[in-house]
Amino acid sequence: MTVEAQSPLIRKLSTFVALSEAELAVLARLHRRRRTFVAGRDMVHQGQSGQLAYILSSGWVCSYKIQPDGTRQIVDFQVPGDFLGLRSVLLRTSDHSFEPIVDIEAAEVLTDDLLEAFAQTPRLATAILWAASRDEAMVVEHLVGIGRRDADARMAHFLLELGSRLALVGIGSKEGFDCPLTQYHLADTLGLSAVHVNRVLRQLRESGLVTFRDGHVTFHDYGGLVELAEFDSAYLDQSGPLLK
Amino acid sequence: MTVEAQSPLIRKLSTFVALSEAELAVLARLHRRRRTFVAGRDMVHQGQSGQLAYILSSGWVCSYKIQPDGTRQIVDFQVPGDFLGLRSVLLRTSDHSFEPIVDIEAAEVLTDDLLEAFAQTPRLATAILWAASRDEAMVVEHLVGIGRRDADARMAHFLLELGSRLALVGIGSKEGFDCPLTQYHLADTLGLSAVHVNRVLRQLRESGLVTFRDGHVTFHDYGGLVELAEFDSAYLDQSGPLLK
Q1: Which residue among B92, B139, B230 sits closest to A237, beta carbon to beta carbon?
Q2: Residues of A in contact with B132 (CB under 8 A)
Q3: What is the full DSSP assignment across B168-226?
Q4: Cβ–Cβ under 8 Å, residues B241 and B18
Q5: Chain B: residue nearest A142 by CA?
Q6: Are residues B234 and A47, on separate chains, in Cβ contact within 8 Å?
Q7: Best CATH choice for the domain B3-132 from the list 2.60.40.10, 2.60.120.10, 3.90.25.10, 3.40.50.880
Q8: DSSP structure class, residue B233
Q9: Which residues form a coiled coil (chains A, B) (predicted)?
Q10: Would you tell me which CATH number, out of the four given (3.40.50.800, 3.30.450.40, 2.160.10.10, 1.10.10.10), belongs to the domain A137-236?
Q11: Which A-chain residues 151-180 have CB contacts (< 8 A) with chain B?
């Protein structure tokens, strides 16, 4: 199997830049230290220092902050091809925690290896910064969602975003995608109660738009859901290579 | 006047890295194209492509997204020393808008100049990425604030964050800071109505914690406000140079 086929990150970055052999080789080296992590045990704790970054190759991870009163706000989910903790590498302590939702496989990336890769291939650095920019654009969308969208539109937007992200790495489509999230993950992401999450999902199902059941999201009326969420995927910026 | 004295960005980056003469010279070149912008007119529109980045040297800017229904969510404010649109340079279209709150002065930075500066001085690149990481950590905190903090704690946290950021560039302290924001800015930032903002500010004032009046924020009881907001400034990561 080629590295390209093994690495969702390479697939994702290829959306932004047509990678050369040399750049692919540097990326392959970043994937050297492969590790597995079990579901439910934090990989990185909020406040931890000296942490590493990871490239997620299979499974889902959630990043979250715990408030002093014990409530949890999920900031984002990482899916195959995403970096974990890329940002935290540069801050002295991690500003949030990462927890695998299922058993995952990820490559550990040392800060020095990353900076060396950046120095060797500025185009690759630009591509990785593009991915980081896109991650931040998602956090901004989540902020707008919690601040300004009603519960139905918020849920619809979230499921559409996940679908687009997964499609980029070949594990989702406009038909739907496999999804290991529970109603508690959805609640802590969208700022809703678990009961409210259930009600919203029932409404979306009964409106013939989308069903989330038994670990699978099925889009019944993709266009209708886009309209409800006023989903404009421009912020995901995944419509083909920018740098040739 | 030296460049250091003129540039809040240099002052801010010096928190992270002790800059060499060569690095200071590269930074000074990034400040070449100085421009002024008037209050209230967007510098960058949401959806605009081919946009530039800016280094803000004086004044305040707000970055926001307008929802299709016309409501506005303010994502963050930029104060002297901050980059504007650093992220958008790498995305094909800007995912949000930037509007000066007062007349401002900013240096226009071309993408090519930025990438060239990165290639010349990897340490400077790391310092700028640190600043970008810190900006993202703030957006995450705002997400947590809207999702999980009550209105009083949300306001207190926001004012404390602003105070810390401004102190870093020498225009704020634990006594207070000048602040050009209106109640509408606060409302669109915190996901509250303007009426609610007024009520919250009155409560904080009557509790003897903080007063925001006539363009100035005065901290009466900094420790008490930190306690109310459960403010832990670690995410701002501004406690002295990391790279020597």
Answers
A1: B92
A2: 132
A3: HTTS--SSEEE----HHHHHHHHT--HHHHHHHHHHHHHTTSEEEETTEEEES-HHHHH
A4: yes
A5: B143
A6: yes
A7: 2.60.120.10
A8: G
A9: none
A10: 1.10.10.10
A11: none
Write down the ipTM of this complex: 0.82
Structure tokens at B148: 């999980």
Residues for chain B: how many in total? 244
Q: Which two tokens stand for residue A109?
A: 């990336």
* CATH topology identical between B3-132 and B137-236: no
For residue A224, the distance in angstroms to the closest alpha carbon of chain B comes to: 16
pLDDT one digit per residue (tens) for chain A, 244 residues: 455 556 899 999 988 888 899 999 999 999 999 999 999 998 888 777 766 889 999 999 999 998 877 889 999 999 999 999 887 776 767 778 899 999 999 999 987 888 788 778 878 877 888 888 888 889 999 999 998 899 999 999 999 999 999 999 999 999 999 999 999 999 999 999 999 999 999 999 999 999 999 999 999 999 999 999 999 888 887 765 554 4
